[in-house]
Design goal:
mainly beta; globular; five-stranded antiparallel sheet; about 140 residues; single chain; 10 strands
């Protein structure tokens, strides 16, 4: 299994997975610059610094919700679906893995007790933000 995996369908990124074994020096971003959710990795040596800074107000327009999940503990199987709700593929994530869900659909099956941390854009729209469906057979 590679340390980073990009799942694509019809030239569209469905998900980016950074497995817990990924490591490198420096900074690397895995997402295209136009994604509304940016996913990157940073490894800094002792004594390095990031200069103090403030982020300036910049109005952005979010078209679709993208979610980033951190598997804090456990195992989860994620099923991925094309935009037309047809099944695409599955992956298993374990403690320490991170995934950016960029497009298409997804569902979760918890293989053991699992703790996730989720980061996504706001404001929260509740059930207006998603369409639930059953896998087409």
């Amino acid at each position: 299994m590679p340390p980073i995996e990009q799942l694509t369908s019809n030239n569209q990124i469905i998900a980016i997975i950074v497995y817990h074994k990924f490591a490198k020096d420096g900074i690397e971003f895995f997402t295209p610059g136009d994604f509304s959710q940016q996913l990157g990795y940073m490894k800094h040596k002792k004594g390095e610094t990031i200069q103090e800074h403030i982020h300036v107000l910049h109005v952005r327009e979010v078209q679709y919700t993208q979610e980033t999940l951190f598997v804090k503990k456990g195992r989860v199987k994620i099923n991925f679906y094309h935009q037309d709700k047809s099944f695409f593929t599955s992956r298993e994530l374990k403690t320490g893995d991170v995934i950016l869900l960029a497009s298409g659909g997804h569902g979760f099956e918890f293989l053991e007790e699992t703790e996730l941390i989720e980061v996504k854009q706001g404001p929260y729209c509740g059930d207006q933000d998603k369409v639930r469906f059953v896998e087409k057979k």
